[in-house]
């Protein structure tokens, strides 16, 4: 009987050690997942801000190109002055008005 209790205690100790090792590995994995997720969220926000800046700069460029064309500067000449492609100058001058700034979208966290 004492031998069975001793074996049981040894098995229980071994099981605890294995569980702790598995828990440590899972905790490390969870930490890496959380770190990568946080970095991705920061990158997404930076990308969103950059896209909004690009849209604003593109709208400003389009307005300026339209002003050049209003001064009887041809699209070809404006393209040459700005070292741009003529097709790009034409595309930009056909843009309507400045796009409205889009508000940053909230990031879904999975919880309600």
What does this entry look like structurally?
The chain has helices at 2-70, 75-82, 86-93. The chain is mainly alpha-helical. The chain is rod-shaped and about 105 Å long. The two termini are 54 Å apart. The model has no long low-confidence stretch (mean pLDDT 88).
Furnish the topology, listing elements before pairings.
Layout: H1 2-70, H2 75-82, H3 86-93
At a glance:
By secondary structure, this protein is mainly alpha-helical. The chain is 76% helix and 0% strand.
Give the assembly state of these chains.
Answer: single chain
Overall pLDDT level: 88
Q: Which structural class best describes the helix and strand composition?
A: mainly alpha
Strand composition percent: under 5%
Low-confidence stretches: none
What is the H/E order?
HHH
Please give the count of helices.
3
Helix content: over 70%
Q: What is the domain total for the residues?
A: 1
Rg over CA atoms, rounded to whole Å, is 31 Å
Q: What's the main sheet like?
A: none
Q: What is the distance, rounded to the nearest whole angstrom, between the alpha carbons of the first and last residues?
A: 54 Å
Choose one word for the global shape: rod-shaped
By DSSP, the count of extended strands is 0
